[in-house]
Design brief:
single chain; Helicase, Ruva Protein, domain 3; mainly alpha; 2 domains; about 170 residues
């Protein structure tokens, strides 16, 4: 339990630091120096000059995995669609793990362990997620049962007119 809390606090602090860095970098302080291009020697041998994996099956897996992982800063975009620096780092991490021979499940497990279940657009079915998805339906059924019992009980009650008492007329 303490591990989860520490992980969530760490993730929240990480997101706050990234957001603060984004705000700080958005303020125009001085003209930025031109970005230095990455030397081709720094890239792994399995990646071309444009950052695409040379193996087409690995590239297809890379694209699918990056579409299934959520950007932690944008929160409504996948890391494939996001231009945030953190999303670029996550894409680079996924690419390196694919080149190293990691399976898709191992990559998802690594990202989930590191950033929590929120990083996945479709988390695996566990008792916790089953409860989260099933709770609204359970509440709907429970509400239906309560309404049914109340209506049946009120239907069985006599009306005031049927009580046999005549109102006093004077």
């Amino acid at each position: 339990m303490k591990r989860r809390v520490k992980r969530r606090v760490g993730l929240a602090l990480f997101v706050l630091v990234i957001a603060a860095a984004g705000v700080a970098s958005a303020t125009p302080a001085a003209p930025a120096a031109p970005a230095t291009p990455v030397a081709p020697a720094a890239a792994p041998a399995a990646v071309d000059d444009h950052g695409q994996l040379l193996d087409h099956t690995l590239q297809a897996r890379f694209e699918q995995i990056t579409k299934d992982l959520r950007c932690l800063v944008c929160q409504n975009e996948s890391i494939a669609d996001s231009n945030v620096e953190l999303a670029g780092d996550l894409r680079r991490q996924v690419r390196e793990m694919l080149v190293a021979g990691q399976s898709d499940d191992a990559i998802f497990d690594f990202m989930t362990d590191r950033y929590g279940e929120f990083v996945r657009f479709s988390p695996p079915l566990t008792p916790k997620t089953l409860f989260i998805w099933g709770a609204p339906f359970l509440m709907l059924v429970l509400g239906g049962v309560i309404i049914y019992r109340v209506v049946r009980k009120r239907a069985a009650m006599p009306l005031d007119d049927e009580a046999g008492a005549e109102p006093d007329v004077k």
